[in-house]
Structure formats: structure tokens, C-alpha cells
Amino acid sequence: MGFVFRYCSVNVLFLGVILSFHGFLIVQSQPQNQSPPPPPSPVESIFPPPPPSFVLNQSPPIPPQQTPPPPQSTINDNTPPPTSPPPPLPSPPPPPPPPTPSPPPPPISNPPPPPPRAHASPPHNSRESPRNQPPRRLRPPSPPPPPPPPPPPSRVFKQSEKSGLNTGKTVGLVFAGFAAMLQICVVAFLVFKRKQLLRMTHTY
């Protein structure tokens, strides 16, 4: 019996916890599901609602009377006078007349012949005096031609050149002959010595 009583009490406690948790969830979900109250109308915001004790006895509130519009004369006084229409735009000026064609240029005439020169005066008569004749311009005398240059001393230079060449040739020939003589002597000396050596070898 004690075991059954304990088992029943545990079940009751468990059910109580579940129910309390479920009720707590329902209470929290109710304010979220409810729609917010509608906003008060402007008439109600102007006129406060009557107390609940006199709602049944009093008649419904009388709507406010609308004020009549002001007379038109006052409106006309306050409004500015109508502006006058703008003046019409001036008409555009007439187009200028087309330019008249310019007259053709006159033909180019040949230039007049140049006047005769002053020095080409008509010939004077032989009877006129020399005073009336214009003075003649005297040309300056031309400078005398330069004197011809003196002839160069070609003969002296040639003679000295020939003498120099002769002395050089002679000196060169002397040295060439001396060298040839030395070569001949050397060759003869070598031939003579060779023969002596050959004789000495044959004797031994």
C-alpha cells in the first residue's frame, strides 16, 4: 500500500509540474496574439470621454458646429490684385535687304611711259654758250695696273739643285762600290779557307 501511495503522489507531482509549465506558456503567448487597441480618433482626442457613471443618463455628444466661411469681400481684400498680362513681345525686325552687287573693277590700264631722263636732254645748239650747258661729271682716273712681279731665280735654284744631286750621287756610289768590294773580298776569303780545309782533310 505504501508503494502504491508513493507512486500516485509522484504521478500527481509530475502532472502538476507539467500543467504549471503549460499554463505559463499559455499566459506568455496571449499578450503576443492579441492585436493592439486601435488608436483613438481625433474627435475623441479633442473631447475627453465622459465618465462612465453619466454615460447612460446623458445624450450623445453634439458634434461641433462648423464656422461659416468668411465673406468673399474679405477674401478679395486679402488676396493680391491680379497681375496684368505681360506685354506682347515686339515683332522681329525685318530682314536686311540683300547687298547690292559691287560694280566690277575698272580694267587695269597700262602704266604711263616713264619720263625721259635728265641726262637725255635734247642736243644743244652749237651757238649756245658753254655757261648754259650743265657741267659734266668727271670720272675718277682709274688706278694704274700693278707692276709685274720679278721673275723667280729659277736658274740659280736649278744649278744648286743639280750640284746637290751630283754630290749625293757621288757619295752614294762611293759607298756602294766600297760595299761591293768588301763582299767580294769576304767571298774570296771564304772560298780560300774552304779549299784549305778540304786539303787538310784529304791529307789526314
UniProtKB/TrEMBL annotation:
Record carries keyword Repressor: no
Transmembrane stretches, start-end: 7-27, 171-192
Compositionally biased spans, kind Pro residues: 34-53, 60-72, 79-117, 140-154
Keyword terms, alphabetized: Membrane, Transmembrane, Transmembrane helix
Taxonomy, superkingdom: Eukaryota
Region spans: Disordered: 30-162
The protein, known as: Uncharacterized protein
Organism the protein comes from: Arabidopsis thaliana x Arabidopsis arenosa
